[in-house]
Amino acid sequence: MKVCKKMLLLTAVIGQIYFGALAMDGVADNEVSGITGTSNMEEGTSYYAGTATPYDIRYPWYDFNLDRPNSKFAKIAPKKVSESNESNESNESSPAIETHRYGMDAIENEVKRVHPLWENTRYYTPKIAWESGGTEPLEQISIHKEEDYFHFITYGLTELHDKESKDQTKSGFGTELTLKLKRGEYKNQSEEQKELLYIVLLLQKFAKYIIQENSIVKPYEDTYLVKGSSLRKNIGIDIAGTSNIVAFITVPDKDLLSLETPYGRVDFIALIGITKKELQAIRNRKITEKELYEKLGTDVTSYNRKSVI
């Protein structure tokens, strides 16, 4: 049985956010701790303006050495296409579709194939770009409203504008993250908006961790553990921390196809929420991430679902 290779202990993700959420009373509907803005939250026109919290600063051990001092891709090791063919780094995703489109254009073209209705889409962008000293590395996160779920898609772990890294085989870190969150589990529209912004902040934290650790995300191998403070371990991923979902497994996004672009390969890796019992089963080698995914039978994360273990 395959053992999970990496357990990413993202202590700051929920621990810090949770205590900020305790002060949510009286906060405007479009504000979440770490994310504030003036968005009207209407489909097709929404955005958030990210602002730094006191603890949310650039880490001193960032050592950028490319031409751009704030490059997210400075630590990526050089690699040629020929080296990729000899590598054993199989990510078990579907064959990539070749495209002449570059960066963001390539991603947006694939996203529009799956989600053609722009009026059902919300876009979130930080107020200050990462390259300009901002604290949120993802340039954009789109949320697409479908009948039963919201589909989150990140933009910024791959090279969206220029080829900066010296790895010819993949674009940036080679991955954009996605997440499907079940609709209809909130008291009202205001609570729904807050939960959506909370997931946006969570994805920004994941992206920052990937950049900080120079990590390559692969399906069926990584378990993203959302760990709370020392007093509240394995809390839920929702604002209140009461959800049954405490961690994520990674799988290939079943809707978005992998792309072979002029900047390198782009894979869309989906995060699927898992319960504490399911996480323990993975840790105890009673089940693999792929086996758990097949047992779940869905790629939609529901805050309220019961454990399948």
Give an overview of the whole structure.
The chain contains six helices and eleven strands. It is 23% helix and 21% strand. It has 309 residues and is an alpha/beta fold. The N terminus is likely disordered.
Main attributes?
6 helices, about 25% helix, about 300 residues, eleven-stranded mixed sheet, disordered N terminus, single chain, alpha/beta
Distance between the termini: 17 Å
Mean pLDDT: 78
Q: What is the H-and-E element order? A: EHHEHEEEEHEEEEHHE
What is the tally of helical segments? 6
Helix-and-strand structural type: alpha/beta
Low-confidence stretches: 1-5, 7-67, 88-92, 227-232
> In percent, how helical is the residue content?
10-25%
Number of E-type strands: 11
> What fraction of residues sit in β-strands?
15-25%
- Describe the largest sheet: 11 strands, mixed
| Backbone CA Rg | 19 Å
Oligomer: single chain
- Principal-axes geometry comes out as globular
